[in-house]
Structures
1.
Amino acid sequence: MGRITLDKVRKAFGDVEVIPPLDLTIDDGEFVVFVGPSGCGKSTLLRLIAGLEDVSGGQIRIDGNDATMVPPAKRGLAMVFQSYALYPHMSVRKNIAFPMRMAGIDQAEQDRRIESAAKALNLTDYLDRRPGQLSGGQRQRVAIGRAIVREPAAFLFDEPLSNLDAALRHGMRLEISELHKRLDTTMIYVTHDQVEAMTMADKIVVLQAGVIEQVGSPLELYRKPRNAFVAGFIGSPTMNMLTGEDAAKRGADTIGIRPEHVTISTTDGTWKGTVGVAEHLGSDTFLHIHPDSDPSKTMTVRVDGEFTAHHGDTVWLTPQEEHIHKFDAQGLRIK
Amino acid sequence: MARAVTNQRKALNTALAWIVGLAIFFPILWTILTSFKTEADAIANPPILFAFDWTLENYSEVMERSNYGRFLSNSILIAGGSTILGIIIAVPAAWSMAFVPSRRTKDILLWMLSTKMLPAVGVLYPIYLLCIRLGVLDNRLAMVVILMLINLPIIVWMLYTYFKEIPGEILEAARMDGASLKEEILYVLTPMAIPGIASTLLLNFILAWNEAFWTLNLTSVDAAPLTQFIASYSSPEGLFFAKLSAASTMAIAPILILGWFSQKQLVRGLTFGAVK
């Protein structure tokens, strides 16, 4: 079981309130991703749940029990750190065994769990090595192994993949998702990478300055961002934001249109512009276009990989009206 | 591209390093050589480097005249005791400053170091009086405490820089893994900090061993360590150069041997943190 409830949880460092009172419920077995720009308080929130930081107010409940004052060791949660935080003086086997040793689990059971975790994580051949002799990906797997053997109520991941290179990161992302499907245990995952958030989460929590901007499934957030911040943060490349006449005409202060919701033509359309940079990804091409009305701005358009356009070409853009997001002066979505 | 270093240049650097090294070592070498000379050879002008009549008579005379064993055991007790006591006090201090620093931690560290900038003689008078009042002049235990206090800032600083290098996340991981504070210190921190603690022990043992100002001023007979042993052979007229050298050699030999065997540990301790 791993249902975690935050009830008006608040955190201040001295006079600086980094997390104003915040409510959040994480259901048992859910994969929840905290995402937001750096300094938004997502890691602090995770550390509050872990018990590594003390709350300044409010209550944290784990499976209905008040855990606010419970030390980290007693919360039944396992954490995977960005730096892996392996014990450098212990072998992989001893690293994985450490939480079980602390819990006083008997040797036979320890061995059984180590074997099974090592098998699941492809670490069997490395059990007698020291962390220093492993690659980054292997180290991260050891850290995950150390978390698994505890059979925790929930896993906490603090930007676990940011020290890995792009190829490994993708592989590990799949492995963690796979692990979640297999174990069916609650996972809370902190990242600043919205791609990780979109691809892994059951539920995304978007944070900014310690405030939850929106909670929802990846597609909910993508299709119906509650405000301009979420709209701009979720999705890659980011949503095009327009103000002024184009927005006013549609009864909004700001309008947003995703790169794939703009139709491009070489002959006619709503906005005329000049191609700046074309990024060819093979299947898709992202065109960065400077509209003639304001050449200092850039609009991103996603087109098929077959579409050819070069720097300096004149093109016409037309937004798909049904996909335009409208926001008011406060940045809130207009329904 | 790396700097182009020619072989010639390398040879020159090596030669220069040897010259500097020998120049630093020369006084010690000279002392050791002199200890094997007769008093006449010791003050010969021009000085004789090797071509003298080697003799052990200085050593036998020094051994006869003074109780070397008592000085040696006092040195071991005072240096060892003050170092161990210092470590016991410094570990928790460095620990808290490295892992749970407050806003004033940096100031406290600097303040502690600043006590080392004060000339020792500046506090000789009050400490001397204090020792008289407490009846602990020429007392071994008092010397242990005083030398511990003298070296404590260095011990705390060394341990602090060492602990600073241990990532806090590893301690947090231990906490998450269910370790109590005691287990965290015992199974995770201490094994990781052992090289640092060892080199701190070593350096401070050497510092305390060689400490002469306080030991010469506050001891005479009962608590006198090897520094007093050397001093007892110095005379303003310089008549007993060879015996003084023999006494000096006997006083520095134990620490020289200890330093030689642990130089790797010592260098690591002194340069730790310079390069990650």
2.
Amino acid sequence: MSDRSQLISTGKPFQYDKERDAEFERLVKRYPTRESMILPSLWLIQEQEGWVSQEAIAYAADRIGTFASKVYEAATFYTMYHLHPMGENHICICRTLSCWLRGKQEIVDYLETKIGIKPGQISEDGKFSLEEVECLGHCGTAPVVQVNGEFHEDMDVDKLKSLLATLL
Amino acid sequence: MAEKIKLFVNGVEVEVEAKKNLIDAISAVGIEIPHLCYHPALGADGNCRMCLVGIEDGRPPLVPACKTPAREGMKVLLDAEHIKKIQHDVMELELINHPIDCPVCDQAGECKLQDYYMSYDQKESRMTVPQVTKGKKLDFGSGVIHDQERCVVCGRCVRFCRQITKTGELGAINRSDDTRINIFPGRPLNNRYALNVVDLCPVGAMTSSDFRFKQRVWFLKKAPGICHGCAKGCNITIDHNRQKYEDDIIYRFRPLLNKQVNGYFICDEGRLSYKQENDGRLIEARLSTQPRSIDEILTASTKEIDRAEKIVISLSPNCSLEQMITIKALSEKLGATLTGYSEGYIKQDDGDDFLIQDDKSANRAGLQLLEIDNSRDTFTGAIREADLLINFNNNLLLSFAEKEISKLLKGTKVITVTSHDTPFTTMADMAIPVASFSEYAGTVVNSDNILQSFGKAITKNIDLDDISGIAARLGSPLQTPGERFAALQQIISALNGFEPDNIPAEGLKLKESEAANVTA
């Protein structure tokens, strides 16, 4: 674990776009209390901006009507919320047992040489970021790579090459 | 009386109160169950695991005492080897990343971690990896300074801000060994009870910017008292110390538990009002602005009283009942008009529904109980005709603008008997210094009609008489504390059967009939 308490400020106020605004209002009806919206509201922010800024957390707290400290807690507790900007294409490689046994390391090694960054880093041109993540839940078709939220299963280096070609 | 039950602790039968958790029930009979996160005002959280005990009735081998209600016949195990081991293990976990800076830590001497280390651990650290480093001396606002490394993440401060003040400024950020308490950037502690987190913190993570580095706690003498900051009458512990060659100084007020009055907390304003006991005091008698001896001024005052045709006596709503009744007796003897007018002590809409009251005086209910007039008309009417005003510690500049009061007092001699050197003191012709509330014993009635007594906490190098003493020397018939208390008993039947020093610590709730005057 690492310290995630340093939030990044954009200096600009945050606001949901129309689509997320409507989605927020749709979701809020699902839950018995508005506080239940803390995690979904953070997802909506990440979906919209790719990461979660200090202003966005404050916005979510005020929108929900809860303490900013509570949203801050949740955002820093769950590592799946990105608290700084990620690459245009965010690539997650599953590192849990099945994927590990089925060769996730080859995929990581290939990506490291191809893009020139290690997991946890962002390429200089801002195009790519890599991350090793825990189980993505597709163990039957390991190893799994997730690009911008989309699953690519049964991966090997060859498949990865053609996948990268579509992104470059 | 609360219902009692019997249970066994380490095989010994003890009688405890029912409907309490094991920590509270057993601690009442003097047996300690160590705990960090549990606090009676904040409820059981169960996160620190320090209070794990064994219950021999087939339930799991270890249960948190904070979440276990005491039951009849329960067999509680505290001194078994496996309990001692778990206590030691929890301590070891707590201490992995705890800096060993006790010599410079303000909490040292009143630190739970320090105490528990001595009682339950006493082992050397086995850690060979570097400690996790976190933020030091973070300014959380409202005078709270936070050290994240000393924190044991019990969450008391977080729960206090969410449950009690409902302002929620604090949160437990990150997770696992990186967890730390923090404010959200730009939203610091902003409530009038914030400094209570310093008391709640079992370790030295939360410190008060006002108190830190001022005094080692083991040098402080502790005396109970009543805060005179507002009409609530919160119970406080007065921490004071006389350093070599110095005067006795108060270093801080801390809340003292009184479930009937203030519970476990006090407001920040009241907490910091200790400064007014140390500073801005009048310690010499004065003729106009010239220092004189108290005896000299008293003699001069008596002459003025003899000479005066019409006397007005005004008194502060902070005076104790004893002082009020002594002044009242003096006033009756002199045929003076007695007034407790002190509207300036009330700050409209300043109070809240927790502790803070609009009325910033400690004993206005006492004024009404003794039927002392406090209307503006009586005061201004009487003062226009008077040629002498004897003012007992009532800062009239709170109730009147300076121009207004000097106009009213034109041609009136003013003798002020005061604990503080205020601008009003300099307006007086004669000033007599008296003890402030930490330096005398007395009784006050709070805004809920609860009568509370307090003792003399501080003895200054110059041990000034209190207002009753000065009123007696000016000729009040009530010369001794015994006479004053007896006079009070005539009026307040609830005091019958009590002596000044055996009034219950939680106070006497006055009955409606006794308090009938109060609501008038």
3.
Amino acid sequence: MELLEVKNLSKHYKSFDLKNISFTLPKGYIMGYVGANGSGKTTTLNLITGMVKCTEGEVYIDGLSCGEDMRAYKEKIGYVGDESYFPEHFKIRHIRTALKDFYPTFSTDRFNGFIRKWKLPEKKSVKDFSRGMKVMLMFASVLARDTKLLVLDEATNGLDPVMRTEILKLLQEYVMDGERSVIFSTHILSDLENIADYIYFIHGGRTVLYDAKDELIESFLLVKGESAKIPPALKKELIGLEEKTYGFEAILPSDKAELLGNAFLFEKPTIDQIVIHYIKSREEQ
Amino acid sequence: MRALHFMKIDYMLTRKQMYFMPALLVLAWVVGTGVSKGAMSLLVTCSYVAFVASIFSTAPFGYCVGKNRGFLLLLPATVKERVAGRFLYGLSYVGLLGVFCGILWGVYAMMGYELPLWTVAIGLCELAVGILIMALEFLFFYLFGEGKENWQQLSNIVRIAPGMAMFFCMTYFVEKNEEIQSTTVGGMGIDPEALSGKFMQVGVIAILAALLLTAVAAAVCARVIEKRDYA
């Protein structure tokens, strides 16, 4: 059963176009939404949350589109951004009051539990919180109510490893009941390595790769060797060929492995390596 | 209901300005009594109060700029409810300060001051102009400046200038009152008290018209905002 359905999503800006983004995310899974800066990650996530209106296409969360019932649609979403979205002069009690007023499923006890657990200062204004505290407050505000989809836009960037690990654990717990899902954009691809089930890779507003993480990793090889030994047939298939001091490094679709012969080393790539080599190849084009 | 929740959020956002209110209301009374006496001083006080209301009622626009607006935008509500909440906040502010003026009027009446009915009507018209200024400022902020971070100076001018102009106009009117009366109403041989009933009608109609125009402004803002992207 799909929780998130994105169909032919397009958004036109003067200097940027997001074109025909389509994917689905089943219930109980985590999707990593990756790409370079300016590739369209935040635009897509803003389209999903309804903060930006699409030029074309549709988004459904649990079968419901924003146009059908905006209130119910927004209640299903929990959003954590790269920057705090709370009014700077608010204190925790103001946020608690507002959430209680607007969300029928908001649990004050759960919210207070997170506030105590993460030692967030009740008496300070949000503007005096550290970045980590702001992120945790955003998490407390979305985890204290019944959401179906967590949308995280580079939420873990700039956090220390302890906090990042805690957030990753939270995300895994969040999807554990098999009813909820997470879409997660980040530059720290090692985080995705650990928790993502699906990877959607976007570049220049266009889809580059979209698959289950394990299948994606299986479908490529990281190839290393001496540049001089690369035959033309292989060179044509290598993606993001990069010259290094010891030779070259590139990725190759696994189904072209027979082109390698015995002259090169190859191994399973990481998501990071696939993305970096793809971005390199796109930039060269 | 959600519009009321948005109004509550705006009150929470601007809670600090509430601390200044008592001092400003006292100042309004002092300014009024400094310019004139009795009913005429109340007109100056009320115009000062309307001036304060026009500034304070637009405060939420200054507190919610850039990324800080995200929280409001993500709340499960329609654009109409969000805009209505802000207009309700503005109206409630003007209304609260109108109540203050009404109380002051009552106190003056109990103290035995002569309060001609036509001055009450002018007081109502001031309130109507206060509502109208608020509605026009909201219209301006929603159509041109909502959430913009680099509009500080322009937004301050927009917030201050109309209310200030009204205050100075009223001060001028009060100072020149006798002269104006003798060259207009009095000069034509009309007793203003004889027209009191008509004046009151004008005052009430002015308030109703201002409320109607505010509702139209809110509808226009909601319509425009619905088509806007927020990120």
